[in-house]
Amino acid sequence: MSKKATLEIDGNKYEFPIIEGTEKELGIDIKTLRSATGGITTIDPGYKNTGSCESGITFLDGEKGILRYRGYSIEELAEKADFLEVAYLLIFGELPTAEQLDKFDKDIKEESHVDEDMKRILDGFPKSAHPMGVLSSLTSALIAFNPGSVDVDSEEAMYNAIVKIMAKFPVLAAWTMRKRKSLPLDYGDNALGYVENLHKMMFSRPNKTYEANKIVNDALDKLLILHADHEQNCSTSTVRIVGSSHAGLFASLSAGISALWGPLHGGANQAVIEMLEAIKEDGGDTAKYIAKAKDKEDSFRLMGFGHRVYKNFDPRAKIIKASAEEVLGDLGIEDPVLDIAKGLAKVALEDEYFVKRKLYPNVDFYSGIIYRALGIPTEMFTVMFALGRLPGWIAQWREMRLRKEPIGRPRQIYIGETYRPFKSVSER
Ligand code: ACO
């Protein structure tokens, strides 16, 4: 028998169905709450208790530390799949056959040029501009060069739009970095794989033959996979809500990039390294910063610690920690900032404050460390996150449009002034 929830307000009882997901998660379906109760709504700032949609893309269990894309565990995908396969899986729901993967790869390569006029837009930005702002603007500017909304009822139109952005986004991301470094823009090389090509577009020198490094590319591939989706987080919810107004895919993605920029979300990986550098400059006293993080009078937080949903461990952090150790060892990197990171993690993991609140290093703590070891500039870290999250955002946007979800429009409880008559300037 299907479960129901009963709500009692002032002696009146209202019944609501309880829906059950495939992983036995339960949700009270309150779609009829306002109409049944005569306008009573719910209040849940930060949406800690609110499900915004039913989704078949990513399952995570924060208590058990489970993360699965379309049913496949993140551990298996990180070990056995490559980023393009995972992107296909997330977007279209199944792992691609060899033929489908080959076509996806070829179609992306076919679209991997960006209109030359886009360079003039990039030119207009100062070199000091944050790459996330530039990337969000360039993604938005792409609309002007690819006008017309996507016909979401046409599989082909949807596929073409997806392939286009999968192809052009890495070019734009790499260009934001090259602009900062005064390097000539690079269109990459279609003979390379998706991730290798991204690395080439970022790091190639005009007077030097590009040499791929397997350790670096494998680490990048894994990082992109680990970041590829994470259900209804801040940036993904942004993409879905912007898309729910029937704004196009590129406009929705551009908004998602802005949401990801913040230090409480994707910006955390940059904030981690900045924090570690500040600790180093201040003499490397980790105990002092642990004490600051615990002090309620001090706004300082240990960046890269804690997570809204993972309250035991972040499965991505587990994978990436092992990968970080491997990459640092293989590349023979010694860096005092990385030593501070290790020290900080050790102390925090044993400290009662962090243990009690279940604050563990999250994926951003270790991803920042690997990016630094790979020579990626700190301000590009969040761009790397965006590159990984792209297929997740696309998958969520596609799902939202295919399910014909209504426009996102939350309610509020008004707490401002009640009616008061207008006073002219002389009366105030
Ligand atoms: N350092 C010190 N104390 C912390 C930290 C931290 N990093 N994170 C949480 N706390 C404390 C809070 O002060 C609070 O303590 P209290 O109960 O004594 O008041 C308790 O832990 C719970 O914290 P909340 O803020 O309620 O937890 P919430 O789930 O809302 O926030 C968040 C999660 C935003 C990730 C938070 O842990 C944080 O700010 N971490 C640092 C930023 C960061 O690493 N963000 C990356 C997130 S992962 C990602 O986006 C991929």
Structure description:
The chain is mainly alpha-helical and 428 residues long. Helix content is 52%, strand content 7%. The strands form 2 sheets. The protein has a 3-stranded antiparallel beta sheet. It has a 3-stranded antiparallel beta sheet with strand order 4-5-6. A hairpin with a 5-residue loop joins strand 2 and strand 3. The longest helix is centred in the middle third of the chain and has 26 residues, at 155-180. The protein is globular. The protein starts with a strand and ends in a 26-residue tail after the last helix. The mean pLDDT is 93. The structure holds acetyl coenzyme *A. The site of acetyl coenzyme *A (ACO) has 18 residues, from helix 17. This is Citrate synthase. GO terms for molecular function: citrate synthase activity. Pfam families: Citrate_synt. InterPro entries: Citrate_synth-like_lrg_a-sub (IPR016142), Citrate_synth-like_sm_a-sub (IPR016143), Citrate_synthase (IPR002020), Citrate_synthase_AS (IPR019810), Citrate_synthase_bac-typ (IPR024176), Citrate_synthase_sf (IPR036969), Citrate_synthase_typ-I (IPR010953). It catalyses: oxaloacetate + acetyl-CoA + H2O = citrate + CoA + H(+).
Largest sheet: 3 strands, antiparallel
Bound small molecules, which ones? acetyl coenzyme *A
- Beta percentage is 5-15%
Structural class: mainly alpha
- The secondary-structure element order is EEEHEEEHHHHHHHHHHHHHHHHH
What are the low-pLDDT stretches, counting only 5+ consecutive residues below 50? none
Shape: globular
Number of helices: 18
Distance between the termini: 63 Å
Question: What is the spatial order of strands in the main beta sheet?
Answer: 1-2-3
Report the average pLDDT across residues: 93
Pfam families: Citrate_synt
Keywords: Acyltransferase, Transferase, Tricarboxylic acid cycle
Catalytic activity: oxaloacetate + acetyl-CoA + H2O = citrate + CoA + H(+)
Family: Belongs to the citrate synthase family.
